[in-house]
Amino acid sequence: MKVVCVCAFGLGSSLILRMNVEEVLKKLGVKNVNVEVVDIGQARGTRPDLIVSSHSFCEKLADMGVPMIEVINYVDKNFLEEEIKQILKLQ
Amino acid sequence: MTILRGGDYLLLAKLITKETIQLNVAAMSWEEAIKMGGDILIRNRAVDSAYVNAMIKNTIENGPYFVLVPGIAIPHARCDQGVKKLGMSLITLNKPIDFFDSPNNPVKIVICLAAEDNFTHLDILKELTGFLSNKEDIEAIINADFIDQALEVFQRY
């Protein structure tokens, strides 16, 4: 499974997101998952199973038809955990 | 999440110093706030003025996504847009400001970040994430009237 964290430059907020997403996935015992960091320009070139980002980027990528987690508070791991649990159940 | 007290902010303590912090700054707009944080980076030779303009342009183009948690904005731009060396500045605003329609408005702390590349500052981000998750430390910075009070937050051992 490929998770992609998106931000403007791939060197700030998406790195924080990746750290937290990886922690949550580890806690939930999810295996075989790769969490990548990309900037908004590269995001379309990937074929992710899940996109994690903030509102303006999720909006821009909505037409990709990929499940998304729209993050408001970047350090709220409980929110991430709940969202990831929900999405994985659907798959 | 257990938060270790000692040595928590080893790198932040080096980057956030009396030269790079300003408290209760009067800014009338998000643009002015970023400019003020950016000017500190320029004075400390971390970036040139092109980088400050890039941070502002980034906000207009990509929205206020870098207001990552309630009240705290972390503006930044790309390393090739004027970064000379790794640097951070921190300003607190005497009046909170909205950054467009960010769900984490209004902003009270603006931390401008200049990174040299995608990897070297990963440790800084880990420490920064620790700070962003620590409500006590955030309150201490917001309520600090004197620079020493704010610096204490990052230099506790």
Structure overview:
The complex is a heterodimer of chains A (91) and B (157). Chain A has 91 residues and is an alpha/beta fold. Chain A is built from 4 helices and 4 strands; from the N terminus they run E-H-E-H-E-H-E-H. Chain A has helices spanning 13-27, 40-43, 55-61, 77-90, and strands at residues 2-7, 34-39, 50-53, 68-70. In chain A, helix 1 packs across helix 4. Chain B is of the alpha/beta class. Chain B contains 6 helices and 5 strands, in the order H-E-H-H-E-E-E-E-H-H-H. In chain B, a hairpin with a 2-residue loop joins strand 2 and strand 3. In chain B, 41% of the residues are buried. The chains are: A alpha/beta (91), B alpha/beta (157). The interface between A and B is medium-sized, with 24 and 29 residues.
Features:
heterodimer, A: 91 residues, alpha/beta, 4 helices, B: 157 residues, Mannitol-specific EII, Chain A, 6 helices, 18% strand, disordered N terminus
Write the layout of secondary structure elements.
The complex is a heterodimer of chains A (91) and B (157).
Chain A: E1 2-7, H1 13-27, E2 34-39, H2 40-43, E3 50-53, H3 55-61, E4 68-70, H4 77-90
Parallel strand pairs in A: 1-2, 1-3, 3-4
Chain B: H1 10-15, E1 21-25, H2 30-43, H3 49-62, E2 67-69, E3 72-73, E4 87-97, E5 107-114, H4 122-132, H5 135-143, H6 147-154
Parallel strand pairs in B: 1-4, 3-5
Antiparallel strand pairs in B: 2-3, 4-5
Helix pairs in contact in B: 2-3, 5-6
- Any idea how many domains of chain A? 1
**Spatial order of strands in the largest sheet of chain A:** 2-1-3-4
Supply Rg of chain A: 12 Å
Instruction: Summarize the largest interface: chains and residue counts.
Output: A-B, 24 and 29 residues
- The total of beta strands of chain B comes to 5
Q: Globular, elongated, flat, extended or rod-shaped: what is the shape of chain A?
A: globular
Counting helices, strands and paired strands, the structural category of chain B is: alpha/beta
Following the backbone from N to C, one meets helices and strands of chain A in this order, namely EHEHEHEH
Distance between the termini of chain B: 19 Å
- Enter the CATH topology name of chain A: Rossmann fold
Unreliable spans of chain A are none
What fraction of the residues of chain B are assigned to beta strands by DSSP?
15-25%
Task: Round the mean pLDDT of chain A to the nearest integer and report it.
Answer: 91
